[in-house]
Every structure is written in C-alpha cells, then in structure tokens.
Amino acid sequence: MNVLLLGSGGREHALAWKLAQAPSVTRLYAAPGNPGIAEEAELVALDATDHPAVIAFCQGNSIDLVVIGPEAPLVDGLADSLRAAGIPAFGPSRAAAQLEGSKGFTKDLCARANIPTGGYVRTRSIEEADRALTQFTAPYVLKADGLAAGKGVVIAESIEQAEIALADMFGGGFGEAGAEVVIEEFLHGEEASFFAITDGTTVIPFGTAQDHKQVGEGDTGPNTGGMGAYSPAPVLTQELQDRVMAEIIRPTVDTMRAEGMPYSGVLYAGLMLTAEGPKLIEYNCRFGDPECQVLMMRYQGDLAEMMLSCARGELDPAAPEFAADTALTVVMAAKGYPGTPEKGGAIALNDAQGTGAKVFHAGTAIKDGALVANGGRVLNVTATGANVTQAQAKAYEGLDRVDFASGFCRRDIGWKEVAREAAHAG
Ligand code: AMP
Ligand code: GLY
C-alpha cells in the first residue's frame, strides 16, 4: 500500500521508521517531515490545514492510508474530510477528537460513563471560577478547556496563585483555549500512560509508558512536552492494565460509539495511579511524543496493516506483539526550551547509532548542507535493554557521542524505575 504520514516531530520520525519497515508498505510519503523522516520517506510539501490539497495529493498518488500524527489536524477535522473523500485515515474524527480538544467534554463523558477521574467544575467566567474554587483545597488544578500545546494546565499552591492564573486564562493568556476553564480535584499518586487502539468497536491495548514532563532533573521546573520516556511502565502491572481497560478505556469507547461519535485511532490515557486505583487525568487523541518513540522500538507488527485495518473498522482483536525489552528515550532540547529555544545550533550526530541507539529527529533542519537545531525538542536518543537501567545506560552511551553545544538534556530519565530496580536487586 501507499501511505502518507502527516507531521514533523520525533513521534512522526518513529512512525515513519516503523512504517518504512512494514512489509505491506510500497511507498511512504511524509509531509512536511524533517531530515530524519527524509531518510525513511519521500517528503512532500503539503499543508495539513488545506484539506482539499491533502485529498488531491492522495488521489493523485494512489494513497491507501493517511496517518495523522499530531492532534491539531485531528481536532480540525482532517480525518472527516479524508473519509468523506473515501480515503482511509488513521485518527479520530473531529467529534471524537474532542476527547483531547476539550477537557470539559472529557470530564462530562467520564461523569456520564462513571469513569474514575478527579472531581471537577467547568467555568466560563472568572466569577464562576472564583466561586468554584471554594469547593476545592490546595493545590488547585486549573485547565484551559481547549488545545494549548501542553501549556494549558496550572497547578496553583494557594488561592492567590490560583486567582492570578485564572485572571491570565480568562484574560486571553491561552487564547481561545482559555474561554472555558476546568477546575479539578488534585490527584495524588504516580503518573503513567496507557495506549489503546480502537476502530470504534474493537479495542486492543497498545502498551504502557512513563514520561518526564518537567524540564529539570528530579522532576523539577516548568512542564514541557516531555523530556524522555520509557516503555513498558512496570508500575502498570497486568492487573492495573486490565482495570484501566475495563474501567476507563472500554466505557469511553462504548459511550462514544453509543452517542454517535465512534472513536477510531489511538487513544492515549494519562493516568494517576491513586490509592483507590487508576484515575484518568486526560486523554490525547494521538500517540505521545516522546512515548511513541519507545512504543515503536518495541512494536513487532506491521504498523501500516494495523492502522489500515483500524481505519477500515476491521481491527484485529488479537493482542499486538511487543518485544519484552524496555525501550528508553532521552530528549535533547535546545537551550531556552520550554521557553524560547535557541535556533540554528550545530549538531554532529557522529556515530551515535553505532552504539545500537536509534536517533529520532524532532526539531532539526538542514542548513547549508549541515544539520542544525530547529525547534525546542531537537533529538530523541533511544535504546533498548533488558530493563530500564540497561536501556538508560545504552541511550546515554549513544547520546554522549552527539555534539550539540547549544542543547541540553536530563541525565536522569527513568530515575524512579532505576531506583526501584536497584532496590529489587539489592
Ligand atoms: P494534562 O495536560 O491534563 O496532562 O496535565 C499536565 C500535568 O499536570 C499532568 O501530567 C499532571 O502532572 C498534572 N495534573 C493534571 N491534572 C492533575 C490532577 N487532577 N491532579 C494532579 N496533577 C494533575
Ligand atoms: N509526552 C506527552 C504528550 O505527548 O502529550
């Protein structure tokens, strides 16, 4: 089959790498792609917001499947436009993508379907929000309702901080995304990510991971899109995974279908493992970045075939095959991230992949024939091992060969699990 992949980050490089290996793929195109994706796919200049142009390209190049990597085109309804033109797309419709596109929508769905999550109030003005705050205790969790590139969540330690954040949100600090603010109960526990693939009816689990959202070592400093991740997440035991499927994922998929918004694609659940069991923090309607990179290192199936069967509503209910190994990825970011990253910094990959690590490109560009930084998160150095400790050692071995003077990374990706493995061994 011929496949078109949309997106340009490390997630899409990992998807391109896996799609290029799929026996079912004849030709792989990517738009807009990046220099890493260019090694796996033929890059084409297409704007994902221009639906007619994407459809015309698909028709002109006999595309059998479009894989939509990021959330924005999904929330914007690109999958609907493609399906209306008879082109199979991996990714949910605009209505189903509300699971990521509106925090309030998801909270209301959890309430209707009795899905475990924190208590919440949806508010549409600062007065309403101030009143709602009195129902909660510190720390206060405030979320802009719409898409805010991972920056729409504020955890305020005091009422005063909460008031400042609310004034910013309702004052337009998050644009349209902040027209509504959801105030949530603070959940205590360890966070983990769970992935499922569904065609709207059939649901299969698709691996677990843990991310490192904060920019600084020891999980300190501002939130980012993710500074590293590993898969599987041993904290999500088989028993907990079964509970997540039964209590969170299946009721979501069943309710969405029953309400006329069948969800098709990957459903990424951000979970808090609380004393009472797993609770939903949020849904994403796409693979995580950088969680996708570690999932793809372990996935053993034909990714294109799986995605096409999902898009056609014919998903194979058999459990997908993953390597038992652990995969771990470390993000190399440009200095300044998650604020304004330095652009144009020189990168020499040297022979990082000679160590057995895989280097995925996230924000790179070729300038005057040389590889340079072109974004906040720049590279994802990824490796596998028998456990997190070994995968971590191999990832940093690869990373240490890379010269990227204007970049930085966390040196402790996987630290919680490395400590648990050491305690186990000791
Ligand atoms: P979200 O974008 O909804 O995933 O939120 C970003 C981060 O904020 C999460 O990864 C959590 O670390 C934290 N967070 C969000 N909601 C809650 C909550 N209800 N309780 C505790 N932490 C939360
Ligand atoms: N790494 C978090 C996300 O993709 O949302």
List the helices and strands and how they pair.
Blueprint: E1 2-7, H1 10-21, E2 27-32, E3 42-43, H2 51-60, E4 65-68, H3 71-75, H4 78-84, E5 89-90, H5 98-101, H6 103-113, E6 120-123, H7 126-133, E7 140-144, E8 153-156, H8 159-173, E9 181-184, E10 190-198, E11 203-211, E12 214-216, E13 220-223, E14 228-231, H9 238-258, E15 265-274, E16 277-284, H10 291-298, H11 303-311, E17 326-334, E18 358-361, E19 364-367, E20 370-373, E21 377-385, H12 388-399, E22 407-408, H13 415-425
Parallel strand pairs: 1-2, 1-4, 2-3, 4-5
Antiparallel strand pairs: 6-9, 7-8, 7-9, 10-11, 10-15, 11-14, 12-13, 14-17, 15-16, 17-21, 17-22, 18-21, 19-20
Bound molecules: adenosine monophosphate and glycine (GLY).
Notable characteristics:
5-stranded parallel β-sheet, 9-stranded antiparallel β-sheet, alpha+beta, binds adenosine monophosphate, binds glycine, 426 residues, 22 strands
